[in-house]
Amino acid sequence: MFLKGNFLYTPSRTELTIRENQYAHIENGIVTGFTTSLPESAGAEKVIDYGQDIIIPAFVDLHIHAPQYINRGLGFDEELLPWLEHYTFPAEGKFADPVFARRVYTAFLERLKAEGTLCFSAFATIHKEATWQLMELAETMGFKAYIGKVNMDRNAPDYLLEDTDQSLADTEELTVRCQEELHRVRFIATPRFVPSTTEKLMTGLGRLCEKYDLPVQSHLSENRNEVAWVKELHPDLPSYTDVYDAFGLLRQDKTIMAHAIYLSDKEKSLLGNKGVYLAHCAQSNANLTSGIMPLRRNLEQGLTCTIASDVAAGHTPAMNKQIALTIEISKLHALQHDTEKALTIGEGLYLATKGPGRFYGRTGSFETGYAFDALVIHMDDMEGLERTPFEKLQQFIYDGDDRNIIARYVDGELVVRG
Ligand code: GUN
Ligand code: FE
């Protein structure tokens, strides 16, 4: 198949490739290269011409809470710990009902699809049945995803408090069922955060991760009161990061830690050595008054950072809006640290496509060998005011929405909306 249009993608954080009026060749869902005209050998192969529209890699969101979709925008007068208690836990408790869960998860996935996030890593809740519903729905709706059943066996209300052995048994059952029945959706170990998981649970999860070679996702150093609480709970370990490491939960190149705002140099070096993906959630960090991650400094120190929505602490799953906000906050941060450079548009696109895509595999770019996971974006051209592909990208990032995304592809196949 050949697709014609204006392709924009980021082979590296500092490189934005723009292929204007070119043909992408896609074979078995994989990009095999670009040409400036249709080759003679094209023969009877299908050609789709998207004219002056731009085509970018589909977005990848490495940190989002699927059940919290019902709570977007709620409770932001509170900081993290009271917000969890007053808003998030009661919402997650509702997912004991798998019928309710299926309804919410269908709406959640439809919204992600609309906004162009076709690959993601999500927290579900502690509930096994509801988590399976999310996994199955994500698979049948065509997403690439990591999905985790949340583990919590301390400091939670009764209705979200698990028995430790049952939590581990349910986690193992879902891991095996997912491996046997699903293809694009994979299981990820999901201890909520250190205050929610006892040492026994973390030890058991570490063992399961070894046994099934599982990736891990959790939260790290998001809020000052949370960090102090972890210190109280684990006074013998040197840092929050060390707690995860002590229980085998920083798995080499297979771990996502959300927020990671308040880190010592030692913690950064451990996270760097373990190849941990730091999911930077700028909108969430602002909404819950959590703090400002020193993104530029982290990137320059070689840490892997990605842009993530953290719905519902982030109020929108739309990754174009998350990119714009991350850049805006990065500019304000740069103003107060005058040696620092703000994030650029190209960097923002990378941190929401190829950067996080590496966690899943070859997605997030149009280099040869990458899956053709893409969004076709139509921005209105007014007569006499034609915009370049790069200008269209900027206007989509700042002021575009799902109405501008006129086609979505996963593995070279058109994804239909429900
Ligand atoms: N830390 C522990 N749980 C959560 C959660 O659901 N959202 C956020 N933002 N932080 C958390
Ligand atoms: Fe989160």
UniProtKB/TrEMBL annotation:
Residues 54-415 form the Amidohydrolase-related domain. GO terms for biological process: guanine metabolic process. InterPro entries: Amidohydro-rel (IPR006680), Metal-dep_hydrolase_composite (IPR011059), Metal_Hydrolase (IPR032466), Metallo-dep_hydrolases (IPR051607). One of its GO terms (molecular function) is zinc ion binding. Keywords: Hydrolase, Metal-binding, Zinc. Its cofactor is Zn(2+). GO terms for cellular component: cytosol. Pfam families: Amidohydro_1. It comes from the Bacteria. PANTHER family: GUANINE DEAMINASE. This is Amidohydrolase-related domain-containing protein. It comes from Megasphaera elsdenii DSM 20460. The lineage of its organism: Bacteria, Bacillati, Bacillota, Negativicutes, Veillonellales.
